[in-house]
Amino acid sequence: MNNNINILIVEDEALEAKAIESELRKMGYNSIGIAINYQKAIKYIQNEKPDLLLLDVNLKHGYTGIDIAKREEVLDIIPIIYITACIDTQTRKEIIATHPKSYLSKPLKYEELEVAISLAVANKQGIIKIGYDFTYDLDHQNLFHNKTFVKLSPKEKLLLEQLIIRKGECVPFQVLESTIWEYGDFSESSLRTLVGNLRKKLNPKMVINIQGFGYKLV
Q1: What pLDDT does residue 126 have?
Q2: Among candidates 176, 60, 58, which has minimal Cα distance to 106?
Q3: CATH architecture designation of domain 1-126
Q4: Contact 99, 75 (CB under 8 A)
Q5: Using an 8 Å Cβ cutoff, are 84 and 10 in contact?
Q6: Residue ranges of the alpha helices (H) in 100-153?
Q7: Where in the chain is the domain with CATH 1.10.10.10?
Q8: 1, 16, 50, 127: which has the fewest C-beta neighbours closer than 10 Å?
């Protein structure tokens, strides 16, 4: 059980927030509350000290989830998972600048949410098994094979983490571009090279190309 992990849901759609809260409880996590706006979210954060924030990017009344993530008591202190609908390039850059553990697209897939939360709180939950005798320590961003350390580049770590979050499902090219290439140096060939390098360090069968869509970890 994960009942030592306290999660704050910041979502202004009541039905969606309640559905997320119900799923969190099924997963064994504690929901410390639902904040429908910036002001309520800050009160929860200051009073309850959550272990994780689930942040909707687009909140009403002038503030966004990104504004919450930029707060001094949040940035690089409380792990963040964004939940968002369609976002533009500028918003992606702002999201990346707040160093989230992940961001998930709406409509939300609860299997992805469960994996993302597990990764985000890995320092409390332990090392994650990813198959073929490989494990990944998200808190320290270290990959091991049969307890032997496998050195990864910073971009290889970001790629692997995105694949782990959606293990068994295709991670779209657009998601990989926005989360790995922060400064606009992305190209299809650079992504292919990065995936090829990661495959050499994993079992090559673990990363599969979904033609025209993206990659997945199996």
Answers
A1: 58
A2: 58
A3: 3-Layer(aba) Sandwich (3.40)
A4: yes
A5: no
A6: 110-120, 122-125
A7: 127-218
A8: 1
Q: CB neighbours of 147 closer than 8 A, spacing ≥ 6?
A: none
Long-range pairs of 118-127 with CB within 8 A, sequence gap ≥ 24? 119/161, 119/164, 119/165, 120/52, 120/79, 120/80, 120/81, 121/2, 121/5, 121/51, 121/52, 121/79, 124/4, 124/5, 124/51, 125/2, 125/5
Can you list the alpha helix ranges (DSSP code H) found in 49-153? 65-69, 89-97, 110-120, 122-125
pLDDT in tens, 102-139: 888 888 889 889 888 888 886 555 578 898 999 888 76
Q: Please, where are the H alpha helices in 30-136? A: 38-48, 65-69, 89-97, 110-120, 122-125
Lowest mean pLDDT among 34-38, 56-60, 126-130, 190-194: 126-130
Residue 207: is its pLDDT beyond 90?
A: yes
| CA–CA separation, 92 and 89 (whole Å) | 5
201 exposure class (CB count in 10 Å sphere: 0-12, 13-18, 19+): middle
Q: For the chain, where do the domains classified as CATH 3.40.50.2300 start and end?
A: 1-126
Structure-token pair, residue 149: 């350390």
pTM of the predicted structure, to 2 decimals: 0.62
Report the DSSP beta bridge partners of residue 82: 55, 103
Q: Residue 163: in which H helix or E strand, if any?
A: helix 154-165
* Tokens standing for residue 110: 């609860």
Rounded CA separation 114/138 (Å): 15
The CA distance from 166 to 104, in Å, is 10
